[in-house]
Amino acid sequence: MGYLTKLKASNCDFQGIDILKAYVNLEQLDISQCKGMTGFQIENYSKLVIFRASNIRSSNNNFLKQKANLIELDLSENAGIDLSIIQHMNKITKLTLCDNELKNLSELSIQSNLHNLDLSNNFGIDISLICNLVQLKYLNLSDCNIQNLTALKNLQFLEELDISTNFGIDLSGLQFLTTLVKLESQCNDHQNIQALQYLVNLKELDLGNNESIDITPLQYLTKLTNLQLQYCYLQEVSSLSPLCNLEYLDLSYNFITHIKPLKQMTQLTELWLNVNKIIDLTVIQQLPYFDQFVLSEQEESTPQEITLANKMHAIYSTISSLREIRTKCVNIKSVSNSVKQKTAYILKQQIKEHLQFTNIVTSLFQLLRNNEALQ
């Protein structure tokens, strides 16, 4: 067993760390959700390069200080983590710090080798110093209450970006990120997406759950192969006609009546049009994979689908309201910091529970869709 190089021991009820001391050759170690790791010292594992320790709730971060060889590190869900412990880890290429209540990223600004960074669920984080992480290829800033993206304009190697659930975010600044091939921007209440027209290398784009969005700029994104526009209150899709490379297109839960612009999309292998008001489906019958498309109309939708659709809209509305309340609370000067922090924490937990429920509802949708495809 001393020659073991990879160990996943997540969610284990360890009493101390004696059980791990024998595995000195470990290269990968996962102790996520292990709450009994008191006294753990990572320097005992000189060969360790990948370390995952999310939600261990350790108040002592010193166990990482002497570990400079790590290339991947996950410290998610450890609120109050001291980022100074990673200042000397200059070999790290992948870092996950989601849901840590982070505000300042000054300790990260010197991590010039970072390629993959996840900062999701850090409400109100200051991303101004991300401009120094010029080697980034993947960046997750979802659910951070970010209002603008100008700090990202120097990330000339960025390929994947997730900015979902940042309500009212201004997309100005995205036009500089022409290397992007994948963008996720769900649930942001977008009104203006003009900046997207410059992202001509995009292959995957998710704009789901953005009510009343104007999709005209999408006509320039001719390299798209995957596009998601569900729950966008769309009435027409003429802007999509130039997107002949699409392989996956989700237009479900909209108010679309005419789909003639889709008839040239011969590469489509998956198309979702359920819960719309489409008048004539014959215009796409010649597409090669027509028999595999999900095309059911709203009046033909199952009661389960309609119930889930209504539930999803209600959840997103609640999340939006909770975020607005949290933002206002944090900005009230007459309220003490302790009250602000306590209120913000309670609201954060409520938002987190709602977001978890949306994942459940989304999974149920997928099960229903798979069932439709099989029938």
TrEMBL record:
SMART domains hit by this protein: LRR_SD22
Keywords: Leucine-rich repeat, Repeat
SUPFAM superfamilies for this protein: L domain-like (SSF52058)
Gene3D superfamilies: Ribonuclease Inhibitor
Stored InterPro entries: Leu-rich_rpt (IPR001611), Leu-rich_rpt_4 (IPR025875), LRR_dom_sf (IPR032675), SDS22/Internalin_LRR (IPR050836)
Keyword Repeat: yes
Signal sequence, start to end: none
Protein name: Leucine-rich repeat domain-containing protein
